[in-house]
Amino acid sequence: MRNSIIYIFLLLSFTACNDKLTLSPAVQLPTEDALTDIAGVNAGISGMYAGMRSVNYYGRNFLVIPELAADNVYLSATNSNRFPSTFRVTWLTSDGDITNLWNQTYTVMLRANNIINSIPALKDGTDAEKNSALGQALFVRALTHFDLLRVFAQPYAIGGGSAPGIPVMTKFEVGSPARNTEDEVYTQIIDDLTQAKSLLESDAGNPYNANAYSVSALLARVYLYKGDNANAVTESSVVINSGEYAIVTAKDLPDFYNTPGTSEDIFTLRVLSTESLGSDDVGRIYLKPGYGDIRVSPDIVKVFDTDDARYTSFILPFSGSPTEYENEKFYGQDGISGLYSPKILRISEQYLIRAEANAKLGNYAAAIEDVNAIRANRKLPDLVNIPDADVLANVLLERRKELMFEGHRYFDLLRNKQDIVRTFCGDAVELNTPACTYPATSPTVIPPIPQREIDVNKNIQQNAGY
Fold first, then answer.
1. Taking the complete model, does pTM exceed 0.70, yes or no?
2. Pairing of strands 343-346, 265-268
3. CB neighbours (10 Å) of residue 24?
4. N or C, where is the chain less crowded by C-beta within 10 Å?
């Protein structure tokens, strides 16, 4: 069956079909029944976060695709046939991984929209309860729009505000939505986050539900991507200056990614041991036992000082192939190999956002100060006497090392108009690729809108080159 945004909404909106339909399974109540009281809305919030844990979204693929399309990792020549088109940057319009990411992200967006649009009609619940539910749903709606925009549209610095973005969806409706401009999508994202921040408490003690700090953290990231560096500094400073979060120390770094809810975590998607995806848990695409398909590229290995705690903690000889390297960030939570609760927003990224934004604003000393705050917790000396012209490069290098394997690298390269350059390329241990360099301005470094969407939605425009 053909799938589009609208078909997904029809399948998942839980609306009754006719008067003769009498009973619904308890786990699939129609929206008008499930979201009529605060208990139902809170259950909907849980379902919204559960949708984000899908293997097709933050459960794995959204963390893997932006790494494999860039230069931190490579796909082994001996692989399980997962993600070859992503590593080769040769997506087809029928690509299953890209289609599933599109579908699952819009599915989560639908769940957020159902919650947002049901709250005004609630007959029970305190104002605080309703504000919390509404704020969390607005946060997730903004995040889903932002994630889709990052994948399926050119970076703002290249495409500009008038370039095609993705369809903005704020409610369920039958139709064939066209793509909004990038400016229109960013406006919706920022509006949602601004409203969410006014509704949510500053609850740093619970990183598993969106709160005012996680909204500011996401706003900082959004502004950085849009090139609004002044606002990126403002929002990241809200989180940093709160004093509620602390950069993870070198001593705690080895177990950090397998320990949910640390003082570094701003927003973490909690995965319980009972929710393991088995062989599809994030770490198992990197490690043996598991698929072990993705190996760490020498391109990232060579940028490290060997005393760096990130190098000693996370880059090890590959099991069974000691001339290659493996990613040990996601070795396993709760004793389960490869299980990971995605740390979607964390304080170290906020320091790097503020550093990058300040470097682009010409505030070079402030940028280096934030970089050094991280280096102090990675067994590295401070950067000193860095020429102004080299500050941004140093910030971006620190960002690469700190956020490696977390789903940022591809986006970071393209939004800074930097080509994807793989110097480790053509070796027999990695899957062959048609090129070793992919220009940031090439249209086909952006994945296509899925063909199933194009087939059923004549108003939606395909990306250039497909």
1. yes
2. antiparallel
3. 13
4. N
CATH architecture of structural domain 5-17+27-242+249-270+342-443? Alpha Horseshoe (1.25)
Selection from 290, 289, 287 nearest residue 328 by Cα: 287
The first and second tokens of residue 43, run together, are: 């259950």
**Residue type for position 218:** L
- 443: which 2 tokens? 């249209």
Q: Which of 208, 331, 214, 210 is nearest to 271 (CA)?
A: 208
Cα angle at 286 between 302 and 332, to 5 degrees? 110
pLDDT by 10s per residue, the chain, length 466:
334 554 444 444 433 333 333 333 334 445 556 899 999 999 999 999 999 999 999 999 999 999 999 999 999 999 999 999 999 999 999 999 999 999 999 999 999 999 999 999 999 999 999 999 999 999 999 999 999 999 999 999 999 999 999 999 999 777 789 999 999 999 999 999 999 999 999 999 999 999 999 999 999 999 999 999 999 999 999 999 999 999 999 999 999 999 999 999 999 999 999 999 999 999 999 999 999 999 999 999 999 999 999 999 999 999 889 999 999 999 999 999 999 999 999 999 999 999 999 999 999 999 999 999 999 999 999 999 999 999 999 999 999 999 999 999 999 999 999 999 999 999 999 999 999 999 999 999 999 999 999 999 999 999 999 9
Provide the residue ranges of all domains of the chain, joining segments of one domain with +.
5-17+27-242+249-270+342-443
Per-residue CA distances from 176 to 25, 149, 456 (Å)? 30, 18, 8
